[in-house]
Design goal:
About 40% of the residues lie in helices and about 25% in strands. It is of the alpha+beta class and about 80 residues long. The chain has one domain: GMP Synthetase, Chain A, domain 3 (2-Layer Sandwich).
C-alpha cells in the first residue's frame, strides 16, 4: 500500500523528492501517513478534499482486496 500512495502522490506534486510515506500498524489497522512539501499540500488535498478522498478510496479498495484495513492520513509538517 505504501508504494501505491507514494506513486500517486509523486504524480500529483511539484516536488516529488519531498514526498514521504510511512506505515504504522495500530490495533488491527494499518495507518499510512503521507507528508508533502507545504506548497504541495493543496494539490494533494484538492478542492473540497476531493483528491484526498479519491486517494483514500483507491487505497481502501486495494486493501479490501487483500482483507486488510488501511487508512491514509495526510500530515502537515
Amino acid at each position: 500500500m505504501v508504494e501505491l500512495v507514494e506513486i500517486i502522490a509523486k504524480a500529483l506534486v511539484e516536488h516529488p523528492e519531498e514526498v514521504t510515506v510511512t506505515e504504522t500498524a495500530a490495533e488491527g489497522e494499518t495507518v499510512i501517513e503521507l507528508k508533502v512539501a507545504p506548497s504541495d499540500m493543496g494539490k494533494v488535498i484538492g478542492k473540497q478534499g476531493r483528491i484526498a478522498k479519491a486517494l483514500r478510496t483507491v487505497v481502501k479498495a486495494a486493501a479490501t482486496k487483500n482483507d486488510q484495513k488501511v487508512s491514509v492520513e495526510i500530515v502537515q509538517e
